[in-house]
Amino acid sequence: MIEDTVSKIEARLRDADSVSADKKRELLQLLGTLKSEVANLSKTNGEQAQSIAGFTEMSAHEATRSEQNPELLNLSLKGLTSSVEGIEKSHPRLVQIVNAIDRKSV
Rounded to whole angstroms, what are the CA distances from 5 to 36, 42, 80, 89? Predict the structure, then answer.
């Protein structure tokens, strides 16, 4: 299920006309790594992994809209960042990926 969510995000990003080719390439690379990290997390904490995938999907939706709403993008990114709080020690790479997505999406 989580892999399906990330795959949908990747497809949405590939089709987004509102995102530059360079930014798209960077975000797709980050999403590939995120998919792997979230899959690892789902083995030990499925609910947390689903939360991260859900907030990633919302953030991608807001970042790729043709008419962006900066407030909604900011809120979705805050949710994504909050979804990884508390797992820095056990999954530091996952937190790094989420933080990189946050920086690239604004």
Answer: 13, 13, 14, 25
SS3 of 23-43: the string is HHHHHHHHHHHHHHHHHHHHH
Helix (H) or strand (E) holding 67: none
Nearest-angstrom CA–CA distance, 56 and 102: 10
Contacts 24+ apart (CB under 8 A), 62-71: 63/16, 63/19, 63/105, 64/12, 64/13, 64/16, 64/18, 64/19, 65/18, 66/17, 66/18, 68/18
Measure the CA–CA gap between 80 and 83, rounded to whole angstroms: 5
Q: How far apart are CA 50 and CA 26, in angstroms?
A: 23
> How far apart are the C-alpha atoms of 46 and 104, rounded to whole Å?
26
C-alpha to C-alpha distance for 17 and 41, rounded to whole angstroms: 32
pLDDT digits (tens, 9 = 90+) for 18-72: 888 998 899 889 888 988 899 889 999 999 999 999 999 999 889 888 888 999 9
